[in-house]
From TrEMBL:
UniProt signal peptide: 1-28
Transmembrane segments: 189-215, 227-247, 259-284, 304-325, 345-368, 388-408, 414-436
G-protein coupled receptors family 2 profile domain mapped to chain residues: 190-437
The protein's name: Adhesion G protein-coupled receptor E3-like
Recorded topology in the membrane: Multi-pass membrane protein
Keyword Cell inner membrane among record annotations: no
Principal location class: membrane
Domain of life from the UniProt record: Eukaryota
Source species: Megalops atlanticus
GO BP terms in the entry: adenylate cyclase-activating G protein-coupled receptor signaling pathway; cell surface receptor signaling pathway
Keyword vocabulary terms for this entry: Calcium, Cell membrane, Disulfide bond, EGF-like domain, Glycoprotein, Membrane, Repeat, Signal, Transmembrane, Transmembrane helix
Length: 475
């Protein structure tokens, strides 16, 4: 025991408790009645578990902590002083943003010469609260898993104003954490801005989709990728708007929320795949620039584009749901952040963005350096450069906001920027690819003339008919 005392002084431990387990019961060198204020922590081992832990008579090694050589075993129970300042509550990651407070000392229990595997019977830890429990707070029993606090295998069974009892099915390092919900005061303002901004973006996305479908385009330009990109963005933003509008009604239905998060995962991932396919088509167009070719004939077939554009996201979502079926359906009906499941979206996106960057660097190097000696007035070269510039700006607008998304929890300014930029992606697509294109402007004028012309013709017809009827009446 002197050696244990020296260890305790070195580690700044409150106490070390070595429990001797006997066949007919338990004896301990540290005793106290749970519930008394002077008791900080207590460990209760059920009789069935004690019977399992007791070992038969055998030759004991010097490292064995058993206090007897005949039919006994040992459990080491340690309480650390001020360890909660090192293993902080911030290492406990949850789906929603909460204020977390350490409510107990950090304690550790282990079995000498054994691994801390699943126990045949759970053990109870009684922990005294370090501070007063907030009535609106949520107490959680946690254990340390290499780099963070997690709850697997531990649950809260009983609590009062001064103590909490935790039940765990394994031995490890444990603590008690209190969570407090702190919803931002400007949530209502943010929701209204979100609804208005997303609605405006949806309007321009709808106009862009109609333009891509109805307009007659230059035959060397394929709108398959751009059209499907706009459709996926429209559906994703529309679903996001509906979910945020009725979130309080959807959230209690876990299955519905999980399905919605899976659909959003698929749609947003499809947007990045279609953006990659548009960059790939531009690369093929630039590569074949020496010969006048039609991209729809020499580029990627539309059927293959559809297969890649929707097949790859479907595969990612299917594998993600199969590997971690509980990863969908957070409090916001999005991907859960537990166990890094959100990377099932971020990893494919990062890969697609990296490939897109490589494609654009190659395209720009070819257009501005390899073809620098050519006549700059060649129409196809000028058109291609303009297409690349627009696609590059589109890539920046669609991808850069997700960088802000990594830090929205730490900055309200970035949260507003993320919301405004992502909601106006449809507006950008409409302005760059529709409203600012001369051929599209001509189409708009023609449509307007046709509408106004038919209206004028209808008015003149009614006026002529009225005049004829008035003449007949006069006669």
């Amino acid at each position: 025991m002197r050696a244990l005392s020296r260890i305790a002084q070195t580690l700044h431990l409150d106490f070390i408790c070595v429990l001797t387990l006997k066949m007919l019961g338990l004896s301990a060198q540290w005793k106290g009645e749970v519930g008394q204020k002077q008791i900080d922590v207590a460990l209760k081992i059920p009789e069935k578990l004690a019977l399992v832990l007791v070992k038969p008579t055998q030759t004991q090694s010097s490292s064995n902590l058993s206090t007897e050589k005949l039919g006994s075993g040992a459990v080491v129970f340690i309480a650390y002083a001020n360890m909660e300042d090192v293993l902080k509550a911030e290492f406990f990651h949850t789906e929603r943003e909460t204020k977390k407070t350490m409510m107990s000392n950090v304690v550790s229990a282990s079995l000498p010469n054994t691994k801390n595997t699943m126990l045949p019977e759970p053990v109870n830890f009684t922990l005294r609260h370090l501070t007063q429990v907030d009535p609106e707070g949520q107490l959680t029993c946690v254990y340390w898993n290499q780099s963070r606090w997690i709850v697997d295998g531990c649950k809260l069974t009983e609590t009062n104003s001064s103590h909490t009892v935790c039940t765990c099915d394994h031995l490890s390092t444990f603590a008690l954490i209190m969570q407090m919900d702190r919803p931002p005061k400007d949530d209502i303002i943010l929701n209204w801005i979100s609804m208005i901004a997303v609605s405006v973006g949806l309007l321009f996305l709808a106009l862009a989709i109609l333009t891509f479908i109805l307009c007659r385009w230059d035959p060397k330009v394929s709108n398959t990728a751009r059209l499907n990109l706009s459709i996926c963005l429209f559906l994703a933003h529309l679903l996001f708007l509906l979910v945020q509008s009725f979130l309080s009604h959807i959230r209690p239905h876990k299955l519905v929320c999980a399905v919605i998060s899976g659909v959003l995962h698929f749609l947003f991932l499809s947007c990045f795949v279609w953006m990659f396919l548009e960059g790939l088509q531009l690369f093929l167009l630039v590569r074949n620039l020496r010969e006048v070719r039609i991209i729809q004939r020499e580029g990627i077939h539309w059927g293959f584009l559809l297969l890649i554009g929707y097949g790859f996201p479907c595969l990612v979502v299917g594998v993600s749901a199969g590997v971690v079926p509980k990863g969908y359906g957070s409090n916001q009906c999005w991907l859960k952040t537990d166990e890094g499941f959100v990377w099932s979206f971020l990893k494919p996106v990062c890969f697609l963005l990296a490939v897109n960057v490589i494609l654009f660097i190659t395209i720009i190097e070819y257009l501005w350096f390899t073809l620098a000696g050519r006549n700059k007035e060649i129409s196809q070269l000028k058109d291609t450069r303009m297409m690349v510039v627009k696609a590059l700006f589109q890539f920046i607008i669609l991808s850069c906001p997700w960088i802000f998304g990594f830090f929205v929890n730490n900055s309200k300014v970035l949260e507003y920027l993320f919301l405004l930029i992502t909601s106006q992606q449809g507006t950008f697509i409409f302005l760059v690819h529709c409203a600012l294109r001369k051929e599209v402007q001509e189409q708009y004028r023609q449509w307007w003339k046709n509408i106004c012309g038919s209206k004028d013709a209808s008015d003149s017809f009614h006026s002529s008919k009225t005049f004829t009827m008035s003449q007949s009446a006069t006669k």
